[in-house]
Amino acid sequence: MKLALADHLIVAPVLLPLAASALMLLFDERQRKAKSFVSLLTVLALLAVALILFQRVVSAGFDGGPAASAYHLGNWPAPFGIVLVVDWLSGLMLLVTSILAVTSLVYSLSRWERAGPRFHALFLLQLMGLNGAFLTGDIFNLFVFFEVLLAASYGLLLHGSGPARVKAGLHYVSINIMTSLLFLIGAGMIYGVTGTLNMADLALRIPLVQGADLALLQSGIAVLGVAFLVKAGMWPLGFWLPATYAAAVPPVAALFAILSKVGIYALMRVYLLLFGGKVGWTANFGEEWLLYGGLATMAFGTIGLLAARTLSRLAGYSVIVSSGTLLASLGVGQGAVLAGALFYLVSSTLGLSAFYLLLELIERRDTDPGVRAVVEPVFEDEDTDALEEGESEVGVVIPVTIAILGGGFLFCALLLAGMPPLSGFVAKFAIMHGVMGLGRDISAAAWTLVALLIISGLATIVATSRAGIDLIWTPSDRPQPVLRLWEAIPVGLLLLICLGLMIFAGPVMRYMERTGRSLQDRDGYIHAVLPAESMAHRESQP
Amino acid sequence: MEAVLAIAIGVLTASGVWLILRPRTFQVIIGLSLVSYAVNLFIYAMGRLRVDAPALTGAEQAGAASLSDPVPQALVLTAIVISFAMTALMLVVLLAARGLTGTDHVDGEDGE
Q1: Partners of residue B24 on adjacent β-strands
Q2: Is A136 helix (H, G, I), strand (E, B) or coil?
């Protein structure tokens, strides 16, 4: 098979950050300018690559051609070699990741990258793990990329150090190592029964499993599902999430907003590919777990939102609500609900990321900014200057800043709550519309989903307005927050994209609908990955 | 042999899980290591247990079917490396937590 140079682009989202991150190790910790420059360049290149891949999926897909394209590493044939796949869903996730990467990095450059050593190397490795997890076409490499992104996230979570972060980090690392072991058990059992870990190949082989092997396979898949659900933060597996996200420094938390979505992505990919069939035991296997688990998560997140005393906790519970909404919609799982869920995924990820960036700016005046970040480093092997405050302040201390921050906060709150006219509303409306469109036989659980969607929105409004009034309107003798231009721009950019999602809701929704359909009718994906004869082989076997 | 391996995996997992639920960070790390050994053995067992099956060469006479399955071995190798690295990282976090909080309790404070 002859590949054009452009086809090799699929592997760039993995290789580019890896190479740049390795390059970072050559720089001394004091060469900050050079490091920042290289990471900024890498992240922008990643955005460009993601845009090109996305554009190719869109142009090929809407022309009626095959949207999914696979890249066989080392040209090994599909079920045996490693395969990377770009299709509707992974193209979208790549794009969202690179947008978050650009905004988080720009935000961190003005201040937070200096709170500890090796920020850039870890940041880029995190991106490599994320991109790889979205692209990979087999379960074992999904595990490997999960480990890469987790290992980087451990480092990033501890960035800035301090007792709170180390404590949260200890819990986070333990839980995730345990989860990875569950992942391995699940992958091992699936391999033991089917003899393959390639997702497309699994989709063909799983319906053929019979007899005593069936119980083993089903338990393997259930164990694997638990591993994904811990990542996604489903109740009762997600108690670690709010504390961890609250402890991370803001640009890291903003990037972590997509970390819980990786679990959701893995579920969507694996679950819909393997169990999207219409007949036999594989048809919607375990769907009720996703549905009821998602509903419980939404309820838990809603209660947490109302009980949260700090803004960062509030944001953490918003992540949980968003995960729960996605899980429950995946559990309802049919037709237009999926398209709405995908829209919600994009909108809530961007919104949460903006929220994490914004709330640090708002809360900054609560404490002396000099004290917050300067803590003893854990890794004392290299020079980590304390943040030099004052001299580099470019910002202006005028009431305009509070107006901008307040406006941004309002915008975020409306976005997360799903109030019209912002994209959160479009997303929630699309999910509800999808549920209503199921026809007469709407189950009680689906109605509960609709009710919880509205209630969680209300709880978000209540909680954010309470916090907002306290932080922004209450007169106090606290100093005015100092807003630096380069910290405001990323937040503004994220909110602008959300605004764009709302204005261009029509075309975006069309894309989401195609994505939803491509996930449900799996042949496009399987065709792209496997050689034609293995498909023919399946069709000859009833 | 199946029984021995099954018992070994079971004992390792049980001790590991018990240790993970203990309140001291060092116990948690040992627990995680034990569970990861159990998981490595488990993956290996998923390639079916075979005695004297050649890994790569030596199957010229008997054909490919007599070879042992190479994929679980590759998986185990990757898993070993990853869990080794994670244990090292966990130890660093343990030391940092011990240094910053002054206790080896997982919550950073002694509940008793």
Answers
A1: B105
A2: strand
For residue A457, give the nearest of A330, A298, A290 by alpha carbon: A298
* pLDDT score, position A165: 86
Is any Cβ of chain A less than 8 angstroms from the Cβ of B79?
yes
Q: What's the pLDDT tens digit per position in A60-98?
A: 877 777 778 888 888 888 788 888 988 888 999 999 999
Specify which of A228-237, A402-411, A476-485 reaches the highest per-range mean pLDDT.
A228-237
Contact A63, A16 (CB under 8 A): no
Counting one residue from A and one from B, how many pairs have CB atoms under 8 Å apart?
96
- B81 at interface of A, judged by CB pairs closer than 8 A: no
| Full DSSP string of A281-308 | TTTTTTHHHHHHHHHHHHHHHHHHHHH-
CA distance A386 to chain B (A): 18
Q: Which residues in chain A have Cβ-Cβ distances shorter than 8 Å to B100?
A: 161-163, 166, 376, 378
Q: Note whether A86 and A530 are within 8 A (CB).
A: no
Q: What is the ipTM of this complex?
A: 0.91
Q: Does A188 touch chain B (CB under 8 A)?
A: yes
Residues paired with residue A86 on neighbouring β-strands, in sequence order: A69
Total-model pTM: 0.88
